[in-house]
Amino acid sequence: MSSGAGQTSKPKEEPDGMRKEEKERDSAQVELKQKLLEAFVTYPPRKLAGIQRNFVLFGLVEYLKRSIHRHFSSEEVIELVGWFYNIEMLTDDEEINMLDHEEDFSLPQSYFPKVHS
Question: What is the residue range of 51's domain?
């Protein structure tokens, strides 16, 4: 005599206890992390601490947008990078060395016009 009225249907569970939606969400999360790690090859996160920050951030945003086919804001990407790195602790050692290096500068003699006396 069960007509099904008043019964709520439970989401189907897979044999391992996970629902289909959970598996899809987990799969999407894994793909996003994989694409982010791939992007780090071209756009190293340590550069997010340096003067190239905006260029690297833009590159990461574009890479993820093209790989995952959805829009990412720069704030989202910074949060995603936080999965793997503590952003406040990042330093760009190359940039620090470059800024610490001092060199005397002088224009070459060929720059100055020759004065005929």
Answer: 43-90
